[in-house]
Amino acid sequence: MKSAVEWKDFYARERASLGDAGLAERLERAPVVELRQGEALIFPHTKMTVTGHLTAAVARAVVRSGADEVLALGVLHGAREADAKRVKRARAGDPIARGALRRVHAGEDAVCAEEFSLDGFQVLLAFESAREGRKPPRVVARYPFLVGDELTRLPGLDDVVRLAERMPVVATTDPMHHGAGYGTPEHTRRGEHEATTLTFARFSIQKQLDMLMDGKWVAFQQLADLVRSDFRDTGPVLAHALRRGTPLRGEIVELHLVDYADVLGTPPPTWVAGPLMRIAA
């Protein structure tokens, strides 16, 4: 599996290959969604060649909201290469390593320096702002990490809640990783082009949203582990930050299953779910 810095380079090269014309084309194909205060839009960080128009939809919604700043919750896939041993210890339950890493990290924190999950969004945000003659909104990046099911004890959570009260909120996730490249048992693998696979993925992702909206943190984490969802960290923090007494619902606006067998050099099926989602009142 690639490291975060290798993925960062992969996606940077992909964006460079698209050029300005490719970025513009993704904005032109983007579905129209609205970003309202107290709600959130969620975009994928899969291949921009396949799901870039979904990330573009969120970037355009932020620009057209007129906001000067936006809270963006990113996925911290594993910190820096230099942190790999410490992350491994933390995930194995080592209390010292876990205590050092389990928190909501600011985008400026050293451990976030090699992360890539918000890169495409920030590029599209700047590109769309320039097209509309606006100054790009300031991105306040936060990366929840090792959240687990004890959400209310997460250091930095209160900071996210305060930020969400004063600015629009977006987040990123790829809520399902499936197939040979992700360790799915062979007898349960589903090809991304099989007739029932999209329905299967949509059901799993909607179930994640429903659990988050209901505050079922333990059940959510169990499902996230089962389907290898990187919503495991951003999802609970996002749901908590938006919960202010008004019932919320999560919905999938558009969903694509993105082939990664070529990138990972593994047999098919190896795919990642890339959805555009909305959390609204």
Question: Percentage of helical residues?
Answer: 40-55%
CATH H-level homologous superfamily name = LigB-like
CATH class equals Alpha Beta
Largest sheet: 8 strands, mixed
**Strand pairing plus helix content: what structural class?**
alpha/beta
Query: What is the beta-strand fraction?
Result: 15-25%
CATH architecture: 3-Layer(aba) Sandwich
Unreliable segments of 5+ consecutive residues: none
Question: How many separate domains?
Answer: 1
In whole angstroms, how far apart are the ends? 38 Å
Order of helices and strands: HEHEHHEHEHEEHHHEHE
| Shape, principal axes of CA atoms | globular
The counted number of beta strands is: 8
Number of helices: 10
How big is the Rg?
Answer: 18 Å
Mean pLDDT: 96
CATH topology: the name is Protocatechuate 4,5-dioxygenase, Chain B
Describe the fold and architecture.
The chain is an alpha/beta fold and 281 residues long. It has a single domain (4-280), classed as LigB-like (Protocatechuate 4,5-dioxygenase, Chain B). The protein has helices at residues 4-29, 48-65, 84-91, 95-101, 119-131, 157-166, 197-213, 217-227, 231-242, 261-264, and strands at residues 40-43, 69-73, 103-106, 138-145, 169-172, 177-179, 249-259, 270-280. Strands 1, 2, 3, 4, 5, 6, 7 and 8 form an eight-stranded mixed beta sheet that branches. Helix 1 (4-29) runs parallel beside helix 5 and helix 2 (48-65) packs across helix 5 (119-131). The longest helix is centred in the first third of the chain and has 26 residues, at 4-29. The chain is globular. The N and C termini lie far apart (38 Å).
